[in-house]
Protein: FHA domain-containing protein
Amino acid sequence: MRADAAYFEVVKAMGGEDAGSLAMPRFVAERRFALTGQQMVIGRRSRSRGVNPDIDLVGPPEDPGVSHVHALLVPQEGGWAVVDMESANGTYLNDPNSNPLDPHVPVALKDGDVVYVGAWTALTIQST
Structure:
């Protein structure tokens, strides 16, 4: 997981409701998550909602465009698939200028694919 300045500019250009108040963080430490289990929830932790995602993007800094339950990674034959979970700001694959993924439709991932969520978060899929 890393912050992507080019993706951030695309998000701001979309001009959503909160786009004018968004600021790209000066530094975001790169983080790695091992893909394991039956599924992996991508989102932001919320104690009040009982949400504890496997890939927790709560920060610091917190990407305000990531939904609490934003997307799901699910294993499939030969790899993983990403599923948008009706996130508020959409999930994009490889090209943030493309249309967001359709909710609840698994899309196969391959090594090197980039999943964009939130205002600046990019998750690169790497095989081990």
Observations:
- Residues 5-14 form the longest helix (10 residues).
- The helical segments are 5-14.
- The two ends are 15 Å apart (CA to CA).
